[in-house]
Amino acid sequence: MTLPSLNKYLRYFHEQIPLFRQNKYVQILVLRETKSYAIFTTEGDALDTEQLQAGYTDTNAKKTIDRVVMFKRKQIAPERRTGKALLRQFGLVGDGNGEPKSSPKACYLMEGMCGECPDCVLYGFAAVQGESSQKSRLLTDSAFTLRSYTQIQKMIKLNAIQDKTEGGVAGSAFAERDTLIPQVFLPCVETLVDVTPDEFVYVLGNILQTTRYGAEANREGYIRNHVVGISFGNVEKLSNLDLTQRLYDKLAGEGQLADALHLSQFINADGTDGVILEVFEELLSALPGHSLAMPNPELKALLNEVYSIYNELDNSQDFLTRLDTAARSYANTKNGRSRN
Fold first, then answer.
1. Which residue range(s) make up the domain with 291?
2. Which residues are CB-neighbours of 316 under 8 A, at least 6 positions away?
């Protein structure tokens, strides 16, 4: 059952998961906002950074700055875990080779992928025993902070925990971490290619419900994902770096980048206007190919419909069961198996 707010956009979706690519694109514009300290590192203790051009068109902004990077895997892996945990909650994950869905070994990242569940079929997986591989139909890229590294980082000391009552130095510092401060914004796009309406809703649900991103589990930061725009078309028009640099131009020109940023600087409370939506429209009109942006009233209606699915456990179970049936039907067809 398609959500009412998606009825006018059905031409951009597939009724069933396709075997061949047809370049039906849906791009989700997400503004990630740190709500606590966060650590984005790959090796060592320093935040991942990249020296990049500050702005895109403003000649006064064509200096380079060091931007903190949130690599693509640090975005998608937590969202996949969110979706997979929900599938497990309702007994909808199996390994494709007879392992019971209730088994703790049933489909897990990375080497235990089943190849049949909605997560595997949509996000992709490498070749597993008895299965072919599956290319991801969700595309993303590294996200970059608007402001420079020196404005948004802090070295935080880690204290040792002392629980003795007989004395000693409790809480003495033994290390420090390069950390991203709260209220930092990272504009990014998640691009879906050739998906069904249910798969699209599944990705939206994963984005909206995931809150913990970053380094090891005990140091993941709380991030709030704001879905601020959606476009449909037959080409991929939005990129993370374009968004970041064009937003930088607009905010730097108004002198807003010297201090901490606030959500209201990107989008109005009623969802109209806002600098990020200006950039969104500019990018859609600047590049060739068909695209159609969902108006903000329709976006708000869509998000409310998605909330209604995930706010009730019975609704979630019905939706995810339908999604799981479609994914396994596709997997059986792709691998030349008859359905059980």
1. 4-150+182-334
2. 86, 90, 309, 310
Look up residue 277 and give its two tokens: 């939506």
Q: Which two tokens stand for residue 221?
A: 């930061």
Q: Give how far Cα 305 sits from Cα of 205, 236, 280, 315, Å.
A: 11, 26, 23, 11
- In whole angstroms, how far apart are CA 51 and each of 65, 68, 111, 332? 5, 9, 34, 46
Tell me whether residue 160 is in a domain: no
332's tokens: 């059986």
What's the confidence (pLDDT) of residue 219? 64
DSSP 38: B
Rounded CA-CA distance 301/306 in Å is 9
211, 224 Cβ separation under 8 angstroms: yes
C-alpha 278/C-alpha 288 separation (Å) is 18
Give the C-alpha separation, 292 to 232, whole Å: 5
Q: What is the pLDDT of residues 301-324, one digit of tens each?
A: 999 999 999 999 999 999 999 999
- Per the domain annotation, does 285 fall within a domain? yes
Helix 296-310 crosses helix 197-209 at what angle (to 10 degrees)? 80
Q: Decide if 166 is inside a domain.
A: no
Q: For 169, how many CA atoms within 13 A lie in the half-sphere containing its CB?
A: 5
Identify the three-state secondary structure at position 131: coil
pLDDT, tens digit (0-9, with 9 covering 90-100), for 204-235: 999 999 999 986 555 678 999 999 999 999 99
Contact 48, 180 (CB under 8 A): no
Phi and psi torsions of 292, nearest 5°: -145, 120
Determine, yes or no, domain membership for 297: yes
The number of distinct structural domains making up the chain is: 1
DSSP string, 54-78: S-SS-GGG-SEEEEEEE-HHHHHHH
Lowest mean pLDDT segment, chosen from 31-45, 92-106, 132-146: 92-106
Instruction: For tokens 């019975």, name the residue.
Output: 314
